[in-house]
Design a protein that fits this description.
The protein is α/β, with parallel strands linked by helices. The protein contains eight helices and nine strands.
Length: 203
């Protein structure tokens, strides 16, 4: 069986897939328009950002499985795959750490006004006093709406920055929040009223 990786993935997944009894084809430059012409004999298709259209699915006569290396099915025409009896899978939580790191990068950038400071410096200005007025993250309260894989990763990193964490989720109870070492909000309104920073995630 042929396995086509039609997207840019890190080396580990590509390398590990070659240990399976499969013919692995790695073509990260494929696009929505060109994918269809590379599916002949392919039984398993792996994508991330590359869009898998109904037309591409209909052309892949031996396709049995489409895997999205991400948390959703947003790039795959699931309805077309279902009509053909093709199984579609994803990798929930795969990018949780990367997203959590980005959250803190953006929080610091906002607090320190890094984009504005960079623009000022590129304009040959040195406004040290203006861009030294950051309040910092320490002691602030971070609100997390939706305590899924990403939300838990964000909460887990909060202690390093001295942040307090309050979370709301339809499935989160006060007891569970206590076990996680975070505060529980009874509603989104309460969360917004009591927090300084917010991270909204999917359930």
């Amino acid at each position: 069986m042929r396995l086509l990786i039609a997207d840019k993935l890190t080396r580990a997944p590509s390398k590990n897939s070659r240990t399976l009894p499969l013919e692995v084809i790695y073509e990260p430059e494929l696009t929505r328009e060109t994918l269809e012409n590379h599916l002949k004999g392919v039984g398993i298709l792996v994508v991330r950002s590359t869009e898998v259209t109904a037309q591409a699915i209909d052309s892949a006569k031996q396709l049995n499985l489409v895997v999205r290396a991400g948390a959703s099915y947003s790039t795959i025409d699931v309805r077309a795959a279902s009509k053909r009896g093709i199984y579609v899978a994803n990798c929930p939580g795969k990018n949780a750490s990367a997203v959590a790191e980005l959250v803190y990068g953006l929080m610091i950038a906002l607090d320190r006004r890094i984009p504005d400071a960079v623009a000022s410096l590129r304009a040959a200005k040195w406004e040290r006093q203006e861009y030294g007025k950051a309040e910092g993250l320490h002691g602030k309260t971070l609100g997390i709406a939706g305590l899924g894989a990403i939300g838990r990763e964000v909460a887990g990193r909060a202690r390093c920055f001295g942040l307090n964490v309050m979370a709301w989720s339809r499935s989160l109870t006060a007891a569970r929040a206590s076990d996680l070492g975070i505060m529980h909000a009874g509603s989104l309104e309460e969360l917004a009223a009591k927090c300084t920073f917010y991270r909204f995630t999917s359930r």
